[in-house]
C-alpha cells in the first residue's frame, strides 16, 4: 500500500474531507498539522503556495478537490461506472459553486458590505443550493446522490453543511429537506465516521479579551483587526475615573491590554502585530513582514511627533508647535506614505491585499 502524508493547518477546513475518506477506508496516514505562524516560512516550498498537500510515497500533490477525488477513486467512493463518476463530479462542482459563493460573501467582500452580503448569502443563495441538493437526492431515488451506496458526492454535501454550521454557528440548514436529513443521519452513524468524529482533535480557538478606555485611541486598530477576521472577543471598556485604582494591577501601568486565554499582554504595537500574524494580515513571507514593519514604524514616528507637539510641548508654546506640526510634519509623512503606496503599484502598501499597517 502507498504511504500517505496529508499536510494542512491545525484545523478542519479544506483537509477535513480527505481525513474523513482515510477514516472511512480504514487507511493509515500521517496527519501533519502546521501552525499558522509557521506557514509564511513554508509557503514558498509548496507547489502552488497553498494547502492542503498530499504526499504519496514521497511525491507531493496539491489542490483539495484533486486530492479528495484521487482518494475517493482509490478507496472505492467514486462510482462504479464512468457515468456514475460524471454524476458525482456534477455534485462536487455544485458544492464548489456554493463554497465560492460563501467565500465571496463572508470572507472576500468589502468589510462595510460584509454583513449585508452575508445575510443575502444565508437567506437567498444557501437555500437555493440546499434545494438543488435535495432535488438531486430525490431524483436519484436510492437515498444517495449516486448509485446505491456512499460516494464522494454524499460526503461533499455533508462536509459543506457541517462546515457552514460550525463556522458561522447556525443550525438546521437542511431542516425541511427530509432526504438530506436522512442521508446525513446515515453518514453520521456510519461506524468509521462516527469513531473518527468522536476522536478527532477539538478545534480550540483562543479566547480574547481587549481592555481599554471607552474610546478609540490605541485599541481601535486591534478592534478593527478582530472585526476584519470575524473573530469574537470581549471588548472591555473602562471609565477614566476607574483607571487610578486599576493602574497598579496592569503589567506596565498602561492600556490597552490583550488577554489571550487568561495570559495578559501590553503594548499596543505588540498587540496588533500579534493579531495581524494570527489573522493572516502580516505578509506572505519575511520580506513582506519587513515592509509592513517599515510602514508601522513610520506611522509610529508620525504619532510620536504628534504627541510631542500636541501634548508634551510647553503649554505656552503648544499652539505654535501644534500649528507647525500640522503645516510641516504631517504633510511630510503623508508624502512618504503616498510614495510607498505608489512604489508598490498594487494599491496596497505591501503585497496585493490588505495588511495591518
UniProtKB/TrEMBL annotation:
The keyword RNA-binding does not apply. Residues 81-213, 285-357 form the GST C-terminal domain. It holds the Pfam family GST_N. It comes from Biomphalaria glabrata (Bloodfluke planorb). The lineage of its organism: Eukaryota, Metazoa, Spiralia, Lophotrochozoa, Mollusca. Gene3D superfamilies: 1.20.1050.10, Glutaredoxin (3.40.30.10). Keywords: Eye lens protein. Belongs to the GST superfamily. GO terms for biological process: glutathione metabolic process. Residues 2-79, 206-283 form the GST N-terminal domain. Signal peptide: none annotated. The keyword Ion transport does not apply. This is Glutathione transferase. GO terms for molecular function: glutathione transferase activity; structural constituent of eye lens. CDD domains: GST_C_Sigma_like (cd03192), GST_N_Sigma_like (cd03039).
Amino acid at each position: 500500500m502507498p504511504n500517505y502524508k496529508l499536510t494542512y493547518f491545525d484545523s478542519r477546513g479544506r483537509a477535513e474531507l480527505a481525513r474523513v475518506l482515510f477514516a472511512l477506508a480504514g487507511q493509515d496516514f500521517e496527519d501533519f498539522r502546521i501552525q499558522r505562524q509557521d506557514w509564511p516560512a513554508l509557503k514558498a516550498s509548496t507547489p502552488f503556495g497553498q494547502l492542503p498537500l498530499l504526499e504519496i510515497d514521497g511525491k507531493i500533490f496539491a489542490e483539495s478537490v484533486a486530492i479528495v477525488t484521487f482518494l475517493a477513486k482509490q478507496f472505492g467512493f467514486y462510482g462504479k461506472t464512468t457515468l456514475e463518476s460524471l454524476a458525482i463530479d456534477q455534485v462536487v462542482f455544485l458544492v464548489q459553486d456554493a463554497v465560492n459563493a460563501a467565500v465571496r460573501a463572508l470572507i472576500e467582500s468589502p468589510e462595510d458590505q460584509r454583513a449585508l452580503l452575508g445575510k443575502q448569502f444565508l437567506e437567498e443563495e444557501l437555500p437555493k443550493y440546499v434545494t438543488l441538493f435535495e432535488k438531486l437526492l430525490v431524483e436519484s431515488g436510492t437515498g444517495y446522490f449516486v448509485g446505491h451506496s456512499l460516494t464522494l458526492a454524499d460526503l461533499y454535501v455533508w462536509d459543506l453543511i457541517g462546515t457552514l454550521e460550525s463556522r458561522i454557528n447556525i443550525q438546521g440548514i437542511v431542516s425541511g429537506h427530509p432526504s438530506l436529513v436522512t442521508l446525513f443521519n446515515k453518514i453520521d452513524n456510519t461506524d468509521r465516521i462516527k469513531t473518527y468524529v468522536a476522536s478527532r482533535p477539538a478545534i480550540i480557538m483562543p479566547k480574547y479579551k481587549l481592555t481599554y478606555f471607552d474610546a478609540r485611541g490605541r485599541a481601535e486598530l486591534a478592534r478593527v483587526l478582530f472585526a476584519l477576521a470575524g473573530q469574537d472577543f470581549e471588548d472591555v471598556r473602562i471609565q477614566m475615573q476607574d483607571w487610578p485604582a486599576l493602574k497598579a494591577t496592569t503589567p506596565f501601568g498602561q492600556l490597552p491590554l490583550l488577554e489571550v486565554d487568561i495570559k495578559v499582554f501590553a503594548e499596543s504595537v505588540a498587540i496588533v502585530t500579534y493579531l495581524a500574524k494570527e489573522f493572516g494580515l502580516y505578509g506572505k513571507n519575511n520580506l513582506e513582514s519587513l515592509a509592513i514593519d517599515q510602514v508601522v514604524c513610520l506611522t509610529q514616528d508620525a504619532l510620536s511627533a504628534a504627541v510631542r507637539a500636541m501634548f508634551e510641548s510647553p503649554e505656552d508654546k503648544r499652539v505654535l508647535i501644534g500649528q507647525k506640526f500640522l503645516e510641516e510634519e504631517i504633510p511630510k509623512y503623508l508624502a512618504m506614505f503616498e510614495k510607498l503606496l505608489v512604489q508598490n503599484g498594487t494599491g496596497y502598501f505591501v503585497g496585493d491585499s490588505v495588511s495591518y499597517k
